[in-house]
Structure to design on (969 residues):
């Protein structure tokens, strides 16, 4: 009997979804937009650092420093201005990120080991990340040039170079890091945002009251709202994985089963949250604003765009309460590292606990009576 | 005039009555500012390292010692070579350093979790520096122009403002106008002797004031909590922001004349205006890193020019003459959008 | 009249407060099976609030009562099996067709497919809506929507039907026709509980109560009320009773 009611309710939801002028477009358009455009946009990798070299030394060493910077894949020598003020003008125009100034007689003072000689690096701090990493790249390049030069001239003993092994993302492609995590954006919107909006819009049109006065069990009613979005969520995750595979040749190194398990658990958490917000909102605008606040904090604090490891201690503690954090960790670990359940049990258990919590609260806050 | 006043009053009461929405519009920018200012950073300042040592010698002990005392590292201890893969895979450590003693010399290899390529590069740089004793300070002096403490927050303030103004001016305004359309009160006003432009202004002024309040809060916070150096460019900052607020209000008005239901207004504003602001304005992701096609697309997004102008003014402390391009573009966008919105509104009221 | 008949609604001291505002103030009354009970009152007198408490949509602040044999405080979900409700605001799914709406609601009332088939074809015939079965509700004329809402509220043949201003905004001819449907439902044994502010409609009821400022100021058959207040129409009765009102809107 209950199954029959649920089936009737589901049929209603799906019919309404199909007839809605916007929902089908969102369901198809959004995954494509997020999976195709965001990876191109969400690139925090610092690659094209523009350098201006003010060479006051005019020695073979200073020319070699300039040449080595040009040869670096991330650095481009834009100009070699005659003086420092010329370089500053370039920075103000926004053409240059880093200025390298080689002082007069630099190679000579270096050769006599006086130790007082040093080059100056000035970075444009407007974009802090780019400035910091750009400065670091230039400094590394200069240091390795000087080291090579010293060894050749017998100033120091040659040292053994350190081998570096880049695990899990050997091609160092930043997109591989972003793509698995971007599915979190899709699930937040599809399994959290849309059901909440749907519920609130029934409140505004008054149809929810028509339902509340019937003997329909409230659990069935809420389930009928969520199940379609869960299914859509899983379809979207599948499409997302296919896009990752076809467009970016990225396939999960670990088990697909774990990805779906994480996606299902995360969808449960988000829909629980969505229902709580809908239950507590009186108008569409209100629910949108609350959801929007949640989405912003989730995106910033989940480690999606910036590493959690870079946050101060108190902020890191907060991230434990941010559900997307766990989903993102699972997705990245399964996709890139091929991690299994043994590596990720903590994340999975936390998601289960959060799902129980949000769904429980959503049941408590939903009442057919006011 | 008194009609106009009463319209403004009615709208203000409406905004103030929805406490929760009000609270969010004011608190969200503050929270975002604080998060960007004190929580979010892309700087790598804590590298978790394990070491695998084949033989304990003075040299290897000395190297481990250096990792332990260095502030940038959390040295997790020694690991068994067989465990390294598992430890890295479960995310317990960021990197492993293999140290082998080869006669009189140490041979080292860094194995790093390169999932996040940006941090992986920075980490290997740090580790390499510790291993090779290189003290860059001797040979290289690095200083930062404009943003001496390298706070990413400065970078984000213009972006947050760009986003919030779209939220208040475009989304709230369009929804509130469409709500009146839905409930029929708009028709009531339109058949009254009140002139249409008075009605529009009565709608827009309260949101304009709300935006100004938020602008003031954000600027005060930037110059106090975030220690942004104050300079005469503040006047230009306010000027550019006012242009942008009017621009966003025009967007809201335009949206409200096109759509007929609140939910469409919300979705159109969110998808057409909010998402591009977050993704393409350069507020989080540098425009320069995008493919050329998207860089082209970003040119038609007002927020991109606003963010650029604000960065030049607030962070680089440049003169207003440096942002003449941005101001020209923003002004012409405002004029076009406002003209379109007013024309649409007039034709829809007939 | 009908005092020896079973009481399907019986409440005492029902009260609802919103903060310091008392919307419904200690009302007590009974409704008998098969009756058409008119619930009159000015806008804001508390009619809808009282009705929502009876339907289990709103929790009473004080008082108790039984509807269709179930307690209104604890057995609201049981009550809902035995009632039909038509709200003031049209609230069917406007993007579903007439048929889809009817099917949805009758399935919720646990009707079998055969029962749904029979009941719906009978309804369409009665209402003359056969040709509109596959039309989306948003596309059918306003006058028909009320009929459809009434049909949906009675499809499962509830013991009691609650109608909240069912004829609001409808022309007099359609209103008359609507009342024929109400009589029909009543003759089939359903109890009708109807709020209205069209006072001519009160004459169609078996008994009417007049609510003023959250209290029931008068309750009897239309004829008895007219006698009591020496009035010719219920309209006059209402004016006399409602003149005590202090609340406006």
């Amino acid at each position: 009997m209950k199954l029959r009611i649920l089936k009737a309710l589901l049929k209603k939801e799906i019919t309404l979804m199909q007839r809605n002028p916007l929902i089908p477009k969102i369901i198809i358009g959004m995954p494509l937009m997020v999976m195709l455009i965001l990876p191109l946009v969400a690139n925090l990798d610092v690659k094209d650092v523009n350098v201006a070299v003010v060479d006051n030394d005019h020695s073979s060493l200073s020319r070699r420093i300039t040449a080595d910077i040009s040869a670096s894949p991330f650095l481009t020598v834009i100009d070699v201005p005659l003086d420092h003020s010329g370089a500053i003008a370039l920075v103000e125009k926004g053409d240059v990120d880093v200025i390298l100034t080689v002082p007069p007689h630099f190679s000579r003072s270096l050769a006599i080991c006086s130790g007082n000689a040093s080059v100056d690096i000035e970075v444009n701090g407007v974009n802090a990340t780019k400035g910091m990493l750009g400065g670091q790249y230039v400094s590394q390049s200069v240091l390795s040039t000087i080291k090579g030069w010293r060894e050749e001239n017998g100033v120091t003993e040659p040292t053994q170079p350190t081998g570096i092994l880049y695990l899990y993302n050997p091609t160092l492609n930043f997109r591989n890091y972003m793509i698995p995590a971007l599915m979190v954006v899709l699930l937040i919107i599809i399994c959290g945002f849309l059901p909440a909006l749907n519920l609130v819009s029934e409140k505004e049109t008054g149809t929810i009251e028509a339902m509340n006065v019937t003997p329909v069990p409230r659990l069935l009613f809420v389930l009928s709202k969520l199940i379609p979005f869960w299914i859509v969520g899983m379809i979207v995750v599948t499409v997302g994985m296919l896009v990752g595979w076809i467009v970016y040749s990225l396939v999960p190194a670990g088990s697909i089963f774990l990805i779906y398990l994480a996606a299902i658990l995360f969808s449960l958490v988000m829909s629980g949250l969505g229902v709580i917000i809908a239950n507590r909102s009186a108008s569409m605008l209100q629910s949108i604003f609350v959801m929007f606040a949640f989405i912003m904090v989730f995106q910033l604090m989940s480690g999606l765009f910036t590493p959690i490891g870079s946050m101060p201690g108190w902020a890191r503690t907060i991230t434990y309460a941010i559900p997307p954090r766990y989903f993102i960790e699972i997705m990245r670990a399964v996709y890139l590292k091929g991690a299994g359940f043994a590596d990720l049990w903590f994340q999975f258990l936390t998601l289960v606990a959060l799902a129980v919590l949000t769904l429980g609260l959503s049941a408590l806050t939903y009442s057919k009576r006011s | 005039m008194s009609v106009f006043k009463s319209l403004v009053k009615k709208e203000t009461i409406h905004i103030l009555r929805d406490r929760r929405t009000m609270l969010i519009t004011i608190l969200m920018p503050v929270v975002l500012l604080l998060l960007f200012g004190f929580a979010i950073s892309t700087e790598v300042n804590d590298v978790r390292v394990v070491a695998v040592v084949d033989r304990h010698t003075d040299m290897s002990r000395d190297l481990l010692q250096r990792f332990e005392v260095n502030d940038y590292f959390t040295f997790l201890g020694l690991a068994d070579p067989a465990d390294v893969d598992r430890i890295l895979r479960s995310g317990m450590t960021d990197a492993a350093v293999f140290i082998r003693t080869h006669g009189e010399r140490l041979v080292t290899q860094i194995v790093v979790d390169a999932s996040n390529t940006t941090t992986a590069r920075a980490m290997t740089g740090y580790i390499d520096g510790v291993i090779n004793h290189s003290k860059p300070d001797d040979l290289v002096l690095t200083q930062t122009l404009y943003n001496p403490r390298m706070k990413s927050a400065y970078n984000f303030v213009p972006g947050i403002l760009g986003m919030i103004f779209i939220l208040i001016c475009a989304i709230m305004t369009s929804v509130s106008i469409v709500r009146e359309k839905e409930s029929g009160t708009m028709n009531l006003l339109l058949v009254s002797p009140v002139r249409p432009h008075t009605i529009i202004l009565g709608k827009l002024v309260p949101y304009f004031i709300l935006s100004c309040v938020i602008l003031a809060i954000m600027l005060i916070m930037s110059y106090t909590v975030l220690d942004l150096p104050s300079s005469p460019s503040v006047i230009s900052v306010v000027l550019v922001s006012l242009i942008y607020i009017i621009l966003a209000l025009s967007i809201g008005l335009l949206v409200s004349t096109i759509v007929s239901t609140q939910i469409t207004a919300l979705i159109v504003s969110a998808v057409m205006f909010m998402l591009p602001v977050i993704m393409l304005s350069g507020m989080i992701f540098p425009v320069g890193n995008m493919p050329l096609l998207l860089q082209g697309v970003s040119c038609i997004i007002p927020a991109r020019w606003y963010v650029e102008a604000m960065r030049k003014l607030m962070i680089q402390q440049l003169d207003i003459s440096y942002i003449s391009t941005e101001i020209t573009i923003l002004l012409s966008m405002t004029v076009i959008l406002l003209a379109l919105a007013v024309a649409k509104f007039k034709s829809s009221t007939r | 009249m009908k005092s020896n008949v079973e009481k399907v609604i019986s409440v005492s001291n029902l009260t609802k407060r919103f903060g310091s505002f008392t919307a419904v103030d200690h009302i007590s009354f009974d409704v008998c099976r098969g009756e058409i009970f008119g619930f009159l009152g000015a806008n804001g007198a508390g009619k809808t609030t009282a009705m929502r408490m009876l339907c289990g949509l709103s929790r009473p602040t004080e008082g108790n009562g039984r509807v269709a044999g179930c307690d209104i405080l604890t057995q609201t979900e049981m009550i809902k099996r035995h009632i039909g409700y038509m709200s003031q605001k049209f609230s069917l799914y406007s993007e579903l067709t007439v048929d889809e709406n009817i099917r949805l609601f009758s399935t919720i009332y646990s009707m079998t497919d055969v029962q749904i088939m029979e009941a719906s074809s009978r309804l369409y015939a009665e209402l003359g809506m056969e040709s509109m079965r596959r039309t989306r509700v948003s596309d059918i004329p306003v006058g028909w929507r009320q009929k459809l809402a009434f049909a949906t509220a009675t499809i499962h043949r509830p013991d009691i039907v609650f109608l909240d201003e069912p004829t609001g905004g409808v022309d007099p001819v359609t209103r008359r026709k609507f009342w024929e449907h109400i009589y029909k439902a009543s003759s089939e044994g359903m109890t009708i509980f109807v709020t209205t502010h069209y006072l001519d409609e009160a004459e169609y009821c078996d008994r009417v109560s007049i609510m003023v400022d959250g209290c029931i100021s008068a309750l009897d058959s239309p004829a008895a009320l007219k006698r009591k207040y020496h009035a010719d129409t219920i309209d006059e009765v209402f004016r006399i009773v409602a003149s005590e009102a202090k609340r406006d809107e």
Chain B has two domains: 2-40+150-349, 47-139. Chain B has a mean pLDDT of 82.
